[in-house]
Specification:
Elements lengths: L4 E6 L2 E6 L3 E7 L2 E6 L3 E4 L3 H7 L5 E5 L2 E4 L3 E4 L3 E6 L2 E6 L3 H16 L2
Antiparallel strand pairs: 1-2, 3-4, 3-7, 4-5, 6-7, 8-9, 9-10
Length: about 110
């Protein structure tokens, strides 16, 4: 079961955010960028750790660098996912045909479920 809130650190400063407010998580170099409704944060936790913590069905890893929250998907194709949150637009990558198929299936399931 996924926690409603998640704790992460940037250096010695800790942040607590609602998981539903996380738009996407992006691996960039040796840092992880967390895009939320309220801002963008950087932390040292790996994308693999984030993937384990955001295992609920509304999050999906679209390639080796992105985990997206399906509730913020505005559109997608075989190569990219466009997310919109609070007037900000974020583009995430889709890595392979199999990821595109999985994204399509997960979005269909996400929006078909009550």
């Amino acid at each position: 079961m996924q926690a409603e809130k998640i704790l992460f650190y940037n250096g010695k400063k800790g942040y607590v955010r609602r998981t539903g407010d996380i738009v996407c998580v992006e691996a960039r170099g040796h840092r992880t960028i967390i895009h939320t409704l309220t801002g963008t944060y950087s932390c040292g936790a790996t994308l693999k750790r984030w993937e384990a913590q955001l295992s609920e069905n509304c999050f999906l890893k679209t390639n080796r660098s992105f985990i997206v929250n399906l509730s913020f998907v505005e559109s997608y194709d075989e190569h990219q996912v466009w997310l919109e949150a609070g007037g900000r637009k974020i583009t995430a990558l889709v890595s392979a045909r199999s990821c595109y198929k999985k994204l399509r299936e997960e979005l269909e399931n996400y929006y078909d479920s009550p």
